[in-house]
Write a structure and sequence with these properties.
The chain has 16 helices and 12 strands. It is of the alpha/beta class and about 475 residues long. Helix 3 runs antiparallel to helix 11 and helix 11 crosses helix 14. The mean pLDDT is about 90.
Length: about 475
Amino acid sequence: MRNTQSIKLLSELSRPGRRAVRLQPLDVPAVDHCVAIPAHSRAAAPPPLPELSELDIVRHYTNLSTLNMSVDSHFYPLGSCTMKYNPKRNERLAGLAGMLDLHPYQPESSLQGMLEMLWNLQGIFAEIAGLDAISLQPAAGAQGELTALLVAAAYFRDRGEVRTNVLVPTSAHGTNPASAAMAGFNAIGIESDAEGMVDMADLRTKLNAQTAVLMITNPNTLGLFERNISEIAKLVHDAGGLMYLDGANMNAILGASRPGDFGADMMHYNPHKTFSGPHGGGGPGAGPIAVRKMLEPFLPTPRVVRHGDRFALDWNQPKSIGRVRSFFGNVGVLLRAYAYIRTLGPSGLADVSRYAVLNANYLLALLRDVLPVPYAEGCLHEFVGSAHGIKARCGVSAMDLAKRLLDYGFHAPTVYFPMTVREAVMIEPTETESRETLDAFVDALRTIIGEPSELVQSAPHTGTINRPDEVQAAKNQHLAWSAVP
């Protein structure tokens, strides 16, 4: 339902004859065979588009933008999504004419600066991962997962092995089973133990000659580092399988631990989470993957290679799974990640993780008495509290808490994920937030927990939209305006 604040559509603001620009009369002779549109291709009337002044349009979109929450304007404690501030320096560098104005159809001789940047980034990603080879092509983390699994499938085909199963712990990210299914594998769940880690007994019973890959998120979605990770990797490798590391939580271990060193054979990066690329809105993303040497021949093409002091795109990889994205991929996002990494350097990247872990543990210490954490005493970059006790006591759910936080100027944290925690509230502050912001968030959450149930259950009270029917919104979408009644 809407509150008293009314937001009109452009079609409602439209007035006949109103214009943002006045075009001069056409001064090209209307010669049918070269200029005029054939009569049978002309519409009977102009399309019924809104008629508005420039001021109408500017005010409409500016006012709409103020209704949004963003990292630039609000604290985003969105667990598992690492919504940290994107330094504007990276935007300026990515906007340099020598990078922004390039086109993928240009000859390689005119793209040497861009290709050198990409070649360097491949080396940086390989070093951080502790792995040997990189593909920068995938366009998002989920596509990186899919690409890595397609690489694994090609690897086993090349070896003449038929392996059909991908094992996915319940503490892994939710896209993992879908990626496994899309790559043609059977996704098989692995239970968690009482401490939120992979249940080793369950893993042993499900590992067999059909196991192709174990997909593991480490640190996992509870914000915990799998203490048995080396043993897990050995079990998978002894069974002839590969271990895939979901790299969405790399923000917690930069400079402290490398996936290749603890047994991962493949992984993906989320540059928007770990290396501060733009995040959200369905726009361009990137999901580079890193693999061990034996998997390199199967990576997507093209890849950037170096010949002396020159750089080129290499398409000559007979065992490659082929291209997974148009052209080379979303290079603009990769360029922003490169600027972020080069700005911070090795010690700065290590500080990213240290501060992210510090901030998360600070919030955990201040909130665990009101949002109990079912697993472990500490955490890495995020933690999962439970509002189950609050709901049992006064009927206020995790969703209610999240909605009410919007009234206090904080974006809602992730709720109801992972499903291993009842009434889950997943909080990740990231390294970029100050102590004052964290204290204000704690104060707001504690205040909300003490408010009358009716007030919290009907929140938010300050937004343009109050409580939409989210189930119906997902099932019955109206995504476009139509002039037809």
